[in-house]
TrEMBL record:
<protein>
    <submittedName>
        <fullName>Uncharacterized protein</fullName>
    </submittedName>
</protein>
<dbReference type="InterPro" id="IPR026728">
    <property type="entry name" value="BLTP3A/B"/>
</dbReference>
<dbReference type="Pfam" id="PF24917">
    <property type="entry name" value="BLTP3A_B"/>
</dbReference>
Length: 755
């Protein structure tokens, strides 16, 4: 009875292990074993010291297959009958585990891979996740509610995931890792809530914390990942359905557990227990920093690009700072969310969800009689939701670089506006995204509200970089071609209806104007950027959000507008009937017109409203801006379908613009550049989709802009304008002796109003 023992070369029964772990039918363990296991049992201190288990290496071989699983014929858990929660359970719960290496290899016949964990440890911790010298400090028991909380922490030094596609079966064991993800210094904090009477689990909270993640992926790796996903979906669909084994003991059934929790929760007496208690199961992921590098195929032949392609071995870097993902599988839909982890409630997301639920409740009750309304009002508070919250505190997306890029020419395509963000709370993330789906635990016949998605972004700045946009569209077409060639393509036809709301806070769009040419380039008054700024932008497809004011969303339309639309029948590829019907319904209330009778299947309608927008020009970040467009708010309505996109835009006030000589020159060149850029993108799309079976399916876009009045102020240049034939030295001499400029124009204005 020394308290120490050791075993070597242990082989586990793979069939029993598969059934005990309740793995899905398409996942099967082929072999599992470990080379050395040592155990240390403190017989005299079992209440305060943990039983320590040391494992050298654990190797598991997993097979992905669609064949029927092999069963032992008996339930491995049948020997576990009803028993009370006692001393032996507490000893097992307090056990500590230390593993040098865990390696799980999988093989599916076409793909092979591995998952490796090094220096894995499982230990008991205090409620504050500190090391403890006594096991009793890692458990909180409330005698009044007969519940307990226990805290475990899993740590590892290295996590490596690899996957590859091999042709020969003999080569699949030698993984060349075309897909690889490596993380270091990770940990998972697990808090479990149990019954102190029978040991049944009432809930849990799992928090996985990772430090820095670096992932470099090439386009061939992305194509391999898509092929692996397609192969997995094919196996899962072909695998037999799993039979539900009702082997849980009566005290572990969800109904009894929920009843026990409801009866005991109001009687909580322990202050420490209340401080760390939680009333629902949740899963959390925190990552300090993620560096993603998407690279072009360096071995691609030149024939795979258009003739004017100027991006050699392009690469795009995305940096995510402080990423957090929170999942709540079962949450009361009408709850206040005050018990959510690191969540400030109420906020825009929670308020909007409550508005959706209220609108859905009113819609359903309006179609019921009084008796049905009474029954429905009793079961409505039991509505539950599955929620996922994604938050990113900072995002930096750099412009695409290639082999010829220089360090001083690197710019950010997307980044947070730190100057504007300083006026907001310091803990507000740059991106806040929430998903919510609804269900009722007691009935499946009740009409459920549609899924809800809310995105809040800002403040941020976006740089209109033509090379990056062109390269991103090339990547999109490459991935789209890979999806078209899959054996089991990703199905998007069964996407449920989702209410979407997007809030952009203080967005800023920067459009470079270039340095110009000749005299304009040397003149210090020539702008180099157009900056479009606004306070808020709202985009939503939620009909309940705009049905009450749809008549006022657009101001009264002209009676001859339809005649104008009918005169545009000569436009190619444009469905005039669809656009005409879209214009007719602009001013009609949704309560009068049923959307299902006026829209085609798969058509989405989005309302867009902005705060006042203002446009300036400047010569750089620290230069003084020059006004170009005054404050003007916009309302827009967009109908999106697979055949055509119809857009209507209407300013809410008079458009006022101020234009000087140098702005006019640069804007004229900008319009020419954008026109050429659009033609270039169209040519690229035709080139990359030439080999696709469905060809180039371009969707026509019809835009109607309803402008009431335009006020244009043309300002003449102040001072002399340099001649294109004048050299730089003469320019400098003129600036030093302004009195010699006898022919210079002091200033001038020209006003024009269009109604």
């Amino acid at each position: 009875m020394s308290g120490k023992g050791e075993l070597k070369n242990i082989e586990l029964n793979e069939v029993v292990l598969t059934e005990v772990l309740e793995l899905p039918t398409w996942l099967r363990i082929k072999r599992a074993g470990c080379n050395r296991v040592a155990i240390k049992v403190p017989w005299t201190r079992l209440k305060s010291s943990p039983v320590q288990l040391f494992v050298d290496e654990i190797q598991v071989e997993v097979e992905l297959t669609s064949d029927a699983p092999v069963s032992t014929g008996s339930n491995p858990l049948s020997s576990f009958g009803e028993s009370s929660y006692g001393f032996a359970n507490r000893v097992i719960e307090g056990m500590s585990l230390y593993v040098n290496t865990v390696e799980i290899r999988f093989d599916s016949g076409v793909f092979g891979g591995s998952l490796m964990l090094s220096r894995l440890s499982v230990e008991s911790k205090s409620p504050g996740w500190q090391s403890i010298s006594d096991l009793r400090y890692g458990r909180i028991i409330d005698s009044n509610s007969n519940q307990l909380l226990m805290f475990k922490q899993v740590t590892w030094q290295l996590l490596r995931i690899e996957a590859s596609a091999q042709l020969e079966p003999s080569q699949r064991s030698n993984i060349n890792a075309p897909l690889r993800l490596i993380t270091s210094n990770g940990k998972s904090r697990i808090a479990v809530k149990k019954s102190s009477i029978d040991g049944s689990v009432l809930g849990g909270r799992i928090q996985t914390i990772l430090e820095d993640i670096l992932w470099v992926a090439t386009l061939p790796q992305v194509r391999s990942a898509l092929a692996f996903y397609s192969h997995m979906m094919k196996l899962i669909k072909a695998a037999p359905k799993k039979r539900v084994n009702n082997h849980l003991s009566p005290q572990m059934k969800p109904s009894n557990v929920a009843a026990q929790q409801r009866s005991s929760t109001p009687n909580l007496a322990s202050k420490a227990f209340r401080n760390f208690d939680f009333d629902q199961t949740s899963y959390h992921l925190y990552v300090g920093k993620i560096d993603l590098h998407l690279c072009d195929d360096v071995h691609a032949v030149s024939s795979g690009y258009p003739k004017d392609w100027d991006i050699d071995s392009g690469a795009l870097q995305v940096t995510l700072i402080r990423l957090s993902i929170d999942i709540y599988p079962s949450n009361v839909a009408a709850s206040d969310r005050l018990n959510w982890v690191r969540y400030a409630a109420p906020n825009q997301c929670s308020t909007w969800i409550q508005q959706i639920l209220k609108s859905h409740y009113q819609l359903l009750t309006s179609r019921m009689d009084s008796n049905a309304q009474s029954r429905f009002s009793r079961i409505w508070p039991q509505l539950h939701s599955q929620n996922c919250v994604l938050r990113i505190h900072d995002v930096v997306v750099q412009c695409v670089t290639d082999a010829n890029s220089k360090r001083d020419a690197l710019f950010n395509l997307f980044a947070s506006d730190r100057k504007s963000k300083a006026s907001l709370p310091s803990d507000q993330p740059l991106i806040h995204l929430e998903f919510a789906s609804f269900y009722h635990p007691a009935t499946e016949t009740m009409p459920m509200p549609p899924n809800a998605t809310h995105l809040l972004v800002g403040p941020f700045s976006f740089l209109f970089d033509q090379r990056t946009i062109r390269w991103v569209l090339y990547v999109y077409e490459d991935i789209n071609n890979a999806l078209q060639s899959l054996d089991a393509p990703i199905e998007m036809d069964y996407m449920p209806k989702t209410d979407v709301r997007i809030d952009l806070l203080m967005p800023k769009i920067i459009i470079p104007l270039g340095d110009g040419r000749g005299a304009v380039r040397m003149d210090s008054r020539t702008p180099k950027r157009v900056v479009i700024s606004m306070s808020t932008v709202l985009v939503t497809n939620c009909e309940s959000a705009h049905s009450y004011d749809s008549c006022s969303f657009f101001k009264s339309l002209s009676s001859n507008l339809i005649d104008f639309i009918d005169d545009t029948t000569q436009l190619n590829n444009l469905n005039i009937d669809s656009f005409r019907q879209f214009i007719i319904l602009l001013n009609q209330s949704q309560s009068v017109v049923d959307p299902s009778t006026t829209r085609e299947k798969g058509e989405d309608r989005f309302w867009i409203s902005t705060s006042p927008i203002w446009v300036d020009t400047d010569r750089g970040e620290s230069s003084r801006p020059t006004p170009l467009l005054g404050d003007v708010a916009l309302h827009a309505l967009c109908d999106i379908s697979s055949k055509q996109v119809n857009i209507a835009v209407q300013p809410q006030c008079r458009i006022r613009a101020v234009l000087n000589h140098f702005q006019y020159i640069q804007l004229t060149r900008l319009l020419t550049t954008i026109s050429l850029f659009i033609d270039q993108l169209d040519a690229d799309q035709k080139f990359f989709t030439a080999d696709r079976s469905n060809g180039n399916l371009s969707i026509p876009i019809a835009v109607l802009c309803l402008i009431d009045q335009i006020e244009l102020n043309i300002m003449l240049a102040r001072g002399a304008i340099m001649s294109p034939y004048e050299c730089r030295s003469a320019r400098n001499e003129r600036e030093q002796h302004p009195s010699d400029n006898s022919s210079s124009i002091v200033s001038g204005w020209f006003f024009c109003a269009i109604s």
